[in-house]
């Protein structure tokens, strides 16, 4: 999982990824083929909201529906746990992620200017989980 996160320039340390497994609020789904991890998603179930924390797919397995499948499964689990909305943030300019989340029914609800260490803006997105999907 750490290798995949580094391929995508995700700013999570190995320790942060490992800590997710110990959090009671964390939901982690992993896509595997053979002995190879193809992708993973991590979400938090908090106070009736699902926060999509991280979604990553190995470069050589992208554009094969893995990210979509992981996200859809996470949203279904989140809804089943009683969450009524799902939130996420992504880096402005990450067009691939914007398309993925847009197709999944997320819409932009705000921006955080100069949110990331390098000065990039974060785009905040939300999906209503009470609507049939």
From TrEMBL:
<feature type="domain" description="N-acetyltransferase">
    <location>
        <begin position="1"/>
        <end position="130"/>
    </location>
</feature>
<protein>
    <submittedName>
        <fullName>G10406 protein</fullName>
    </submittedName>
</protein>
<dbReference type="InterPro" id="IPR050680">
    <property type="entry name" value="YpeA/RimI_acetyltransf"/>
</dbReference>
<dbReference type="InterPro" id="IPR000182">
    <property type="entry name" value="GNAT_dom"/>
</dbReference>
<keyword id="KW-0012">Acyltransferase</keyword>
<keyword id="KW-0808">Transferase</keyword>
<dbReference type="Pfam" id="PF00583">
    <property type="entry name" value="Acetyltransf_1"/>
</dbReference>
<dbReference type="InterPro" id="IPR016181">
    <property type="entry name" value="Acyl_CoA_acyltransferase"/>
</dbReference>
